[in-house]
Amino acid sequence: MRRKEVYCLLLAFLMFMFQSVYASSMQQKVDIAYSQAQRYGNVVPLSKLYKKVASWRKIPYKKYWLAFICFRQTVVQISKNEDAQSYLDKGINLLNHCNDSESLALLAQMQSMTLPQKKGVEAGALYRICLNNAKASAKKNPRNVRSWYVLGVLDYYTPVQMGGKTKCEEYLKKAISVSDKRKHGFWLPGWGLEESYGLLITYYLDKGLKNKARNAYRQAKKVFPSSQSLRQFEKIVNR
User: Fold this and answer.
1) How far apart are CA 9 and CA 97, in angstroms?
2) How much is the mean pLDDT over the chain?
């Protein structure tokens, strides 16, 4: 390997280590561990972070962040077609007795991930629980991006014959409109906005609304110019 390539690899590694140690928020710490987990194809980086957070005493939103790490572990496992139920159950159990807006939004998101395993009356009952938790989250804090995002997710993935895909555009646009672009405190959640843009673009493409999808993509890229997840839409919306 040439000296220049070695230098570039070393620089990239040092930058990555710097970000890991000096993350500007708890959200970024989880995001870094999540990126590592995706790169390595296992949940080990997230599991290490979970143990570290669990060992910390008297930190704000401790149960929330432990549950959020479980949520990310679940996503990694699902992406590999491996069993994720233990991580999902652990996260839901951590949030079951939390009643703040952020916890209710995350709880509804994680509960909704168990819906594909349910059928009939049981599925209907669980859906109502998810919906009620997401609505309660939005009621407690109408400016919570994650509340509106989860409501959008629930409506988007509800079959049309059961009344789905009727409010997701409204909910996702609401999530985008209430977002606060300023930096938040170290312990506050920061996810949901990028995901709202992504799902809104997907919805427009599903509906054949190419111009709306293109406009939403351009708006999203201004906010998240380096987003890997949004990059997948670039060629599609610009055809």
Assistant:
1) 46
2) 90
Total residue length of the chain = 239
* pTM for this model (two decimals): 0.88
- The whole-number pLDDT of residue 183 equals 58
- As a whole number of angstroms, the longest Cα–Cα distance in the chain is 64
pLDDT of residue 162: 87
Q: Tell me the CA distances in angstroms from 151 to 121, 161, 171, 216, 235, one per residue in order.
A: 21, 18, 6, 19, 28
Query: CA 89 → CA 84, 103, 105, 107, 234, distances in Å?
Result: 9, 15, 16, 11, 36
Check residue 25 and report its DSSP letter: S
Q: Look-up: residue for tokens 């987990």?
A: 37
CA atoms within 13 A on the CB side of 231: 5
Could you tell me the sign of the dihedral formed by the alpha carbons of 44, 30, 111, 97, in that order?
positive
Buried b / exposed e over 133-158, threshold 16 CB at 10 Å, is: bbbbbbebbeebbbbbbbbbbbbbeb
Residue, of 13 and 47, whose pLDDT is higher: 47
Q: How far apart are the C-alpha atoms of 63 and 87, rounded to whole Å? A: 14
Q: Is the pLDDT of residue 17 over 50?
A: no
- Per the CB < 8 A criterion, the answer to whether 138 and 167 are in contact is no
Torsion of CA 21, 27, 30, 31, to 10 degrees: -90
**Measured distance CA(105)–CA(86) in Å, rounded:** 20
Is pLDDT at 3 greater than 80 in this prediction?
no
Digit-coded pLDDT (tens) for 143-198: 999 999 999 999 999 989 888 999 999 999 999 999 876 556 899 999 999 999 99
